[in-house]
Design a protein that fits this description.
Helix content: 10-25%
Catalytic activity: a hydroperoxide + [thioredoxin]-dithiol = an alcohol + [thioredoxin]-disulfide + H2O
CATH topology: Glutaredoxin
Strand order of the largest sheet: 7-6-5-9-10
Order of helices and strands: EEEEEHEHEHEEEH
Family: Belongs to the peroxiredoxin family. Tpx subfamily.
Pfam families: Redoxin
Number of helices: 4
CATH class: Alpha Beta
Function: Thiol-specific peroxidase that catalyzes the reduction of hydrogen peroxide and organic hydroperoxides to water and alcohols, respectively. Plays a role in cell protection against oxidative stress by detoxifying peroxides.
Number of domains: 1
CATH architecture: 3-Layer(aba) Sandwich
CATH superfamily: Glutaredoxin
InterPro entries: Redoxin (IPR013740), Thioredoxin-like_sf (IPR036249), Thioredoxin_domain (IPR013766), TPX (IPR002065), Tpx_CS (IPR018219), Tpx_Peroxidase_subfamily (IPR050455)
Number of strands: 10
Distance between the termini: 29 Å
Shape: globular
């Protein structure tokens, strides 16, 4: 269980992010065409999981824009945007924003939230995913994690980029 805040008020998550140095749990998410997105689909590539509560918030939307740029600039790397938003919302957002370098993955019918320890257990966003970043190397090992301490803050993009160097 991690303790984070929402507007400065402490809240917890159910579980913890996978530990650096461990094998990342495989997952099955749903893409914007209702197909499966699995970690195993990206074997040999580094995977950045940009995990957030909802595309319908400014900070979440900004993180997808920032990681879209990162995906364009860093070789052998795939960015997967993960939330509980329905696949249709992911498609609408990416089309409207011109997002082309990010794979979207809805966790609406997945064990991803439990497997990655990112479900908020209390507060106004109970049940949604906590803002987090997990980076997995080409062999499936977790090489970086960030549990963003304040839900209304952006991830540390520079640290994520450094982990990919």
């Amino acid at each position: 269980m991690a303790t984070i805040t929402f507007n400065g008020t402490p809240i917890t998550t159910i579980g913890d992010l996978p530990a650096v140095g461990t094998k990342a749990p495989d997952f099955t998410l749903t893409d914007s065409e209702l197909g499966d997105v699995k970690l195993s689909d990206f074997a040999g590539k580094r995977v950045v999981l940009n995990i957030f509560p909802s595309l319908d918030t400014g900070i979440c939307a900004q993180s997808v824009r920032q990681f879209n740029k990162l995906a364009e600039e860093v070789d052998n790397t795939v960015v997967v945007a993960v939330s509980l938003d329905l696949p249709f919302a992911h498609e609408r957002f990416c089309t409207a924003e011109g997002i082309k370098n990010v794979v979207t993955g809805s966790a609406f019918r997945s064990s991803f939230p439990e497997d990655y320890g990112v479900t908020m257990a209390e507060g106004p966003l109970t049940g949604l995913l906590s803002r987090s970043v997990v980076i997995i190397d080409g062999d499936g090992t977790v090489i970086y994690t960030e549990q963003v301490p304040e839900t209304k803050s952006e991830p540390d993009y520079d640290a994520a980029r450094a982990a990919l160097s």
